[in-house]
Amino acid sequence: MSTKCPLTKFVLNKGVDNEFFIKIKKNKSTMAIVINPADTFTARLFNINTGDLLSTISLGSGIEVEDASNGVIKLTYAKELIDTLDSERGDKVDRYYLKATHRLAIECDTVDNGKFIANLNEVFVRWVAK
């Protein structure tokens, strides 16, 4: 499964491999950084309730540079990992809305923008309908 559209929610889907394309932008700007071969990216997935670190992926093992001149990286999470993650839903009266169960921190060390962390504080997990 691949996501290339703007996201209002960051949702990991159980039962399939998940790919996300993320554009890294300069501080206080809408301009994308230019990814240099010396740049590094590490994504850490945490359980939101316990704070436990569940997964770490980095450049070359789960993260790839998709479009260096436009600052785009691709994060890939394997089905085997996603299937082990907790998923929570609200009550029937509230239409079984998804509850955030994880958070994602992407640590970036770039020539163009320095060191910074991009945080996604609410990551949702759901089953894919078959």
Structural overview:
By secondary structure, this protein is mostly beta strands. Helices cover 3% and strands 52% of the residues. It has one helix and eleven strands; from the N terminus they run βββββββαββββ. Strands 1-3-7-6-5-4-10-11-2 form a nine-stranded mixed β-sheet. Strands 8-9 form a two-stranded antiparallel ribbon. The longest helix has 4 residues. The N terminus is likely disordered.
Q: Which key features would you list for this structure?
A:
130 residues, mainly beta, nine-stranded mixed sheet, two-stranded antiparallel ribbon, 1 helix, elongated, disordered N terminus
Strand order of the largest sheet: 1-3-7-6-5-4-10-11-2
- Annotation, overall tally of beta strands: 11
Strand content: over 45%
The helix-strand sequence is: EEEEEEEHEEEE
* Gyration radius over CA: 15 Å
* Quaternary class: single chain
- The N- and C-terminal alpha carbons lie at a distance of 13 Å
Number of helices: 1
**What general outline do the C-alpha atoms trace?**
elongated
Q: What is the overall pLDDT average?
A: 90
Q: Tell me the major beta sheet.
A: 9 strands, mixed
- Regions with pLDDT < 50 over 5+ consecutive residues? 1-6
Which bin fits the share of residues in helices?
Answer: under 10%
SS class? mainly beta
